[in-house]
Amino acid sequence: MGIFNRIFKVGQAEAHSVVDKLEDPIKMTEQGIRDLKKDLDKSLQALAEVKAMSIRSKKDLNTNKEMAKNYEQKAILLIQKAEKGDLEAGEADRLATEALTRKEEAVTEASRAQTEVDRFDSNIANLDKNIKKLKSTITSYENELRTLKARARVSSATQKINKQLSGIDSSGTVSMLEKMKEKVAQQEAMSEAYGEIAGENKSIDDEIDDVLSENNVKASNSLEELKAKMKQQ
Q1: pTM of the complete model
Q2: What does the mean pLDDT of the chain come to?
């Protein structure tokens, strides 16, 4: 059982090592920014929903305030009618009481709507604050990512150059160049040696032909002309 545990741990360690090698800071940062943007979208959606509920609660608040005001005015009108004799006093009291009851219900609903509006406004303020912070964070990370990418490109190029420079086998290269120089010098010496041998092996006919060659004839004629010119002088 112990050996299986050890084998498992070794395999697990190798797996973690592979994962570490596969991790790319730039790709991980890009993924992190994408995740933050998803969170931002969800936060914006939540903000829109809360704002919608706040708008609805404010409408309910205004509606109930208006209803309470209207029911109070109706109760006043009913009492005034009774005072003028246009409406029986008992009936006026009954209707006025109903109107005031409806007024109180509207006031209660308005109070509830006001509480909801206050709560929603508080939620909106918190969401708006978090959204601004999230936007700022995303912008900051994007700026850092651009810097990281630029640094990575420079680092990669520098690394390649340094690797190439450090990877040069200077002793081997110099040795190869020296061998090539030696080989070329040997070939040049051999060529010169063969030329000397070829000159030493000239036959008598070759020597005669050289003496009688056109260049030698021209040189002799020039010499004779020079001698004649000197005698005339």
Answers
A1: 0.54
A2: 79
